[in-house]
Fold this protein.
Amino acid sequence: MTSEKDGTLTRLNPNTGEVVGKPLRLGAGISGVAIGAGSVWVSDPPSGEVLQVDPQSGRVLKKIRVGGRPGAIVFGGDRVWVADGDGSGVTAINAQGGRVIRRELPPQAAPLRLATGAGGLWVSSASTGNVRRIDLDTLRFDRAIAVGRGPAGVTVAGGLVWVANSRGGTVTKVNPEFQGVEGTVEVGGQPGGIDAGTSTVWVASAAEDAVTRIDLASGEREGAPIQVGSEPGAVAVGGDAVWVADNGEGAVTRIEP
């Protein structure tokens, strides 16, 4: 996980939740992190770069100039995808060699959130209320799909794309085949961070300091919300636990499903 304030990248033991080794100091203002092709990729808005970090030595292998203020970042299709916080769209980087192959993929808006799955990169745009797919191979982009008010986090699981609508208090289900909305689920105030495992979608609601579960099979809410720390943001599902970044406390909550 990254700390924008401290400029550090920290590794946690997935079994114990304890910090492994010393945090890597990469510079104040670093933002998103993604893992793929044997490297850790970190977006660095102040420098306009994406950093390629060796996970073993902690050494910065390469600084890739993308311009703007790179923020949300994911890995998929042997490429690194990073969204510009200033609204210039998405940049695609080949993981092998670290070469930028395309800039300013739509939408040209901010903020954007990214997820890969179902053969594509899915981009949600809070300012336009849409989500759209970019082909991982051809970089062709499809039409925008209206999903709700303030779409923020997005994930792909169970054959559907799930979009958390921060201003609508809902999660929208999108069918990637016919690219249409299949329904919405009420989850509570200001949902944002979202991720899924094999049977459950996990959604963090910042206004309620809680995480809501949605059953993948039925698409319905599952049980009562789980209280976590203040202002929960990013959610990550691992093999044995769910991890939630508590932005208000600068901490991480570990949930055992």
Q: What stands out?
A: The chain has a mean pLDDT of 96.
